[in-house]
Structures are given as C-alpha cells and as structure tokens.
Hints:
Shape: globular
Structural class: mainly beta
Oligomer: single chain
Order of helices and strands: EEEEEEEEEEEEE
Distance between the termini: 43 Å
Amino acid sequence: MINASGNNRKNYLRVIKQGLKIKELTKPIKYKKINNIWSIYGEKNENNDQEIVKMIALSTDSETIVLTYTNNSFAQTKDTGIDNSTKSLFINRMDDGSLIQITENGFKHIIPGRVQKLNAFDGKIIKGVAKGMQMVLALLGGEIFYYEMDQTG
C-alpha cells in the first residue's frame, strides 16, 4: 500500500509493505460519536526535520478527550489546560508553543505557566481555525473575527 499526504513543504510518501508488525499504542476508546480529531505536535526530533505528536484531542457532542503521549503509549489526561467539559471546534499548537482551544462559546489561549481564561462571545461560534500566530472565528449570523497574537500572547 502507498500513502501520499501533506501540503507545501511537509509532503510525505509512505510505502507500507506486507508483513510489517503493527504496534498498538492504546486501547480503543468507546465513546459516543466523535466529531473531530486533532493531532497536536510538540517539539521537533533530534534531526529537526519531523515534529513529534504529543497529544491527540477527540471532540464529542458534549466533551473533549485529550490523550497525551508518554512512555511509548497514549493515555487520557485532564491536566493540559484544555477544557474537557465542553465540545471543541478546533485545537492547535501555535508557533510560540501555546495551545488554542476554540469552543462554541469562545476560545481559550493556553500558555504554560500562566493563568488561562476563556474569552467568551455573545454569539455562537460555528467555525474556527488557528495557525502560526493567527486565528479566525466565524459566528452564527455571519460575523467574522480575526486575531493576530503578538509576542506576549
């Protein structure tokens, strides 16, 4: 089997040969319908050419489940700063190492070592995306908000 994926400079061509062993990293999670899945990267490896997945976030209709990678396996955790009690629309690591969690009610900017707060909106957020140091939110009714973070977050 051949798999091609990626975009821009991060393109990959993987050839999977028959007979290779598959390593199970975690037991299957039995939850309700999973709406979104994000792989959240950490620091780059020692060759500085490939980022390493540190977290996997799963969003259901009522909660967000976070799995972190430790000791060669993934395990569920609640100490990442991500609000586990609500549905997430988007989660990503920003260029400065902080995390962004976008929910229907607002967004949370999670900076290690600092108090995080949910920035709430009057309207309902229906879509959101963040990359680099920028974030865009679309509210029900057609309003669009654009944010660009400075060095202080």
